[in-house]
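From the thread on structure requests for the teaching lab: each student submitted one protein with a one-line request. Submission from student K.M.:

"Model Integral membrane protein from Actinomadura barringtoniae, tokens only."
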Amino acid sequence: MIWSLLGAIAAAVCFGLATVLEAVAARRAPAADNVDPRLLLRLSTQLPFAAGLVLDVVGFVLELAALRSLPLFVVQAVIAAALAVTAVAAGPILGVKVSAAEWAAVVVVCAGLAMLGSSAGHEGPAHVSHTFHWTLLGCAAALFVVGMTAGRLPGTARSIVLGGIAGLGFGIVAIGARVLTSLSPLDLITDPAAYALAAAGVAALLFYATALQKGSVTATTAAMVVAETVIPAAIGIWLLGDHTRNGLAPLAITGFILAVSGTLALARFGEPAPTGDEPAPATPASAPR
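Reply posted by the TA:
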């Protein structure tokens, strides 16, 4: 199980670095008034975004491996803590000043993850009905429709709602990976859950990139973190049989709250401060303190 936990942490490192690269590309692209699926195609021509996608793929493979033996509430909290990685990297790489309070938040995240890791029970692939797999695919389709509609909302409301929808999409990716009965190519092409996690992943990436173009980065990232951690964790416990080691549920709950709370305190690192002669967006990342 220790290898699975290390794999989840490595996935968080990949996602944290990818966040920086993809957010830079998203801010450089012309902003649209609604969700434009062609945005991902335009962004893919930019080297930072392409490099971020490579890191995302590596991170997803590591996350998938971790989800085969760890509960959702552990893996999702670790993945959300990618913002702690972004915060640590922001200073030396991006020249972003990290405050003492934010360094404290990084420590809180690490403490929370240590509690979660020590309390987690060993899991295997969740055994659910085939109907559950089809339901996941239906949820992914519904999420896309809702996200496209939310793209018409004004200002901050759009960024927050799209951030939450992106988080739900990443949550479906994690749940789908958790319930895959087999990683055999022949089994994957016949499993609705495989299509659900692929579709939800692409939709989540599109909605998050769109949300970053306008509105508050902190609010967008906070909405995504809550949606991608709390809801999948609840589903894992109530429907998939995720559990802690005997007598360690209070430790797991405390660790989860600390990890998520610390991550929310680092939400501004969902998008780095602008560099060079790029105009500074009206976000907390560039506002005076």
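TA comment: The chain has one domain: 2-269. Residues 138 and 196 are 8 Å apart (CA to CA).
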